[in-house]
Write a structure and sequence with these properties.
five-stranded antiparallel β-sheet, binds guanosine-5'-monophosphate, 3 helices, 24% helix, HIT family, subunit A
Length: 119
Amino acid sequence: MSEPVNNTIFGKIIRGEIPCDKVFEDEDVLAFRDIHPAGPTHVLIIPKKRHIPTINDATAEDQALLGKMLLTAAEVARSEGIDQSGYRLVINCNQHGGQTVYHLHMHIIGGRALGWPPG
Ligand code: 5GP
C-alpha cells in the first residue's frame, strides 16, 4: 500500500510547497531552522522518505534512519559552532510531550545554557 499524503506542515516543506531556512539536506533527511526558535540555535531534523507521525510509529526498518538523524544532529551542531558549548536534542511525542507537528522531528537547541528539568 502506498503512503498516505503527508499533509503536515513538514510534509509541505519537504515538497517545497512552503519555504524553509535550510541548514542541510540529503536523500534521507532535511534540517532547517525552527520558525519560533527556543534559543540562538534551533534546528529541526526530519526524515524525508517515509511519513512517521511520532517516534511511536518508528519500526525496526527505520533503525538506520533514526541513527542518521542523530549523526546529522551532531554534524549540524558542529557546523553551527555549538558542539563544544553544548546543546540539547529533543523528540517530543504526543500530547504530554508537547508534540504539535505529527511528522517525526528532532530539535537541536543550543547557543545558551538550558534549564533542567524541562517545564
Ligand atoms: P513540536 O512541538 O511538534 O515538537 O515541534 C514543532 C516545531 O515546529 C515547533 O518548534 C514550531 O516552532 C516549528 N514549526 C511549526 N511550523 C513551522 C514552519 O512552518 N516552519 C518552521 N521552520 N518551523 C515550524
